[in-house]
Amino acid sequence: MTYVAVEAILISILLFIPNIVSDDTVPIPAVKTELNGWFQSNVKPSPTLDPALATAEAGAKVIKVNADGSGDFKTLADAVKSVPDGNTNRVIVSIGPGKYTEKIKIERTKPFITFYGDAANMPTLAFGGTSAEFGTVDSATLIVESDYFSAVNIIIANTSPRPDGKRAGAQALALRIGGDKASFYNCKLNGFQDTLCDDKGLHFFKDCYIEGTVDFIFGNGKSIYVNTELHVIPGDPVAVITAQARQSEAMDTGYSFVHCTVTGTGGNALLGRSWMPFAKVVFAYTDMSDAVDPKGWSDNVHPETDKTVFFGEYNCKGARADFAARVPFAKKLTDAEAQPFISLAFIEGSKWLLPPAKV
User: Fold this and answer.
1) Boundaries of each Pectinesterase catalytic domain copy (predicted)?
2) Are 330 and 310 contacting, i.e. CB atoms less than 8 angstroms apart?
3) Would 1 be classed as within a structural domain?
């Protein structure tokens, strides 16, 4: 059974009210308690939305998945399969509580899909794929190649054993997001090495939790992470949070972490490494616990990249935010240098970013 979401009706009305405008140039506030007010004021339906997205939201429908058989489908794979190729309407997949042991891929031909769970009883998508079996980027529990994807209140986990440094191909992704204009709200990504492949496209993460050990956020996306916990699982000789894959000065990609928190223990977590020579990563207003290595960053034993990477920090705090011990090629950003990374203009948000769905 499907029905038109009330939210979609409201969106279709709001789109034609000229004074409802999403402004992606307003900086993210320096005070964390002002985040929600800033978000509500600047992320909303408006005439600046991509026309295809506006049309899709106006025709939104909901389908239900419940493992107990009480929904339209029992599996997420069947729900995704029901979405037609060339889909033009928002399809909200409302997922009942429980654990769904599935490996799911949303093909590029199926845009405008939302995975939605109950915040009070979040569903878990889990699978144990590894690089040895599927290849690294295809080991993910959830692979999204389509545009305009959104996930709300979802746990995505790769249940493979923790890599021990001896088994080849032990890295295992929870999520690979390779579609453009994707948003994640209140989602948890659980894994060890390579938890999240932020592969390519414009992406937005808010109020999320991402855990891992080595390179647990990697890829060549252009993304903003807001109020997201980056949890370093202790135990490895070296932990690495980001391995951003920008390969040339001409590539318009990078990661910006704003009002995030780095948690964990061990004191050996690097904020990022130059996996690729032009990696671009910025941490702003972020609380850095003593899980972080004082030197902060690594050139991956490639000193020639010291002149090409862009590893920046801006007004961070916490036990390991002191810049005194940072590597020489890290940048302590000025107000002007930080501005491009602390507004939604970084990801062209006014064209596509909407608040989380409600069902």
Assistant:
1) 64-349
2) no
3) no
- Summarised one tens digit per residue, pLDDT across range 323-345 is 999 999 999 999 999 999 999 99
Residue position matching structure tokens 């996930």: 151
Nearest to 311 by CA among 324, 334, 327, 294: 327
Number of Cβ within a 10 Å radius of residue 240? 26
Please give the positions annotated as active site.
215
The stretches of the chain forming alpha helices (DSSP H) are 6-14, 35-42, 51-58, 76-82, 131-134, 335-338
Q: What is the DSSP string of 150-165?
A: EEES-EEEE-SPPP-S
Residue 359 belongs to a domain: no
Averaged pLDDT, 126-130: 98
Distances (CA, A) of 230 to 70, 250, 288: 36, 29, 10
Number of domains present in the structure of the chain: 1
CATH code of the domain containing 139: 2.160.20.10
Q: Is residue 357 part of a domain?
A: no
In the chain, the N- to C-terminal Cα span, in Å, equals 14
Tell me how far apart the alpha carbons of residues 252 and 31 are, in angstroms, rounded to a whole number.
28
Structure tokens at 285: 């207003």
